[in-house]
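Hey, weird one. I pasted the ADP-ribose pyrophosphatase YjhB (NUDIX family) sequence into the form twice and got a warning about non-standard characters only the second time. First submission, copied straight from the form history:
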Amino acid sequence: MDEQNLAWTGPDGHQNIAWTGPDGNFKLRGAAIVRDGDRILLCTTDGLDGWYLPGGKVEFGESAATAVVRELREEMHLELTAGELLLVTEDMLTLNGTLHQEICFYYAVEWPEGLSPELPKENAAHEHHFRWVRIADLVDVQLLPPQIGPYLMEEAAGLRHLVFDRRSSDAR
């Protein structure tokens, strides 16, 4: 039997709910839908070809909402509040023959009035880059996962659950 990495230990020594096994890998993630008027905050990291909503892996013993607040603090050095749960996604993707599966909880986060919208850029943690994009312009952005773009552009009310099966023919 192949040995499995059943938890990923972050640089702070905490274990994330993420693992790699012989059939692929999995991660549980929390993300923020940060809005400031008609704009939404996006993030990327060095070497990544696309933009995603800020957030990260959930650690053992914390809720997804708590993970969002912690990740925003780590990545932007800001204390923001996770609001209503708006979206849950399940994403399955095959890359180079390996199945990647992710479940993500997306929370509403309002940008505080009076706080400079330039702070995410100024306070960005190493290798993180942030930018504000008008919601109407999201069609021109390579989002990760790409299927969340239409959801972010519509005025949906209530919690949504979306499943993205992007497995290719080389998946097991």
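That's the output from the first submission. The warning seems to come from a hidden character in my clipboard, not from the data itself. The CA atoms of residues 27 and 102 lie 5 Å apart.
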